[in-house]
Amino acid sequence: MTNHLTGVVTPLLTPYEDDLSIAESLYLDHAAFCLESGAHCLSPFGATGEATSNTLSERVAMLERLVASRTARPG
């Protein structure tokens, strides 16, 4: 079975706190706003190279929070 992403794929911006940690509540609110505004798919950590500003463990933890928030939805 092959699934293809279709529709609007929105890169998520990653907001940061003053200490440069990810601003979790803003991130999750932004994801929800994008989906409520018509995005079909989300591309976490944007498209501007900001993912390299975070460690792998930080990115994995934020992705787990995004999925747990039920903001993310399949297909």
TrEMBL record:
Coiled-coil regions listed in the entry: none
Pfam hit, one: DHDPS
Keyword Lyase: yes
Keyword Lyase: yes
Keywords: Lyase
Gene Ontology molecular function terms on file: lyase activity
Protein name: 4-hydroxy-tetrahydrodipicolinate synthase
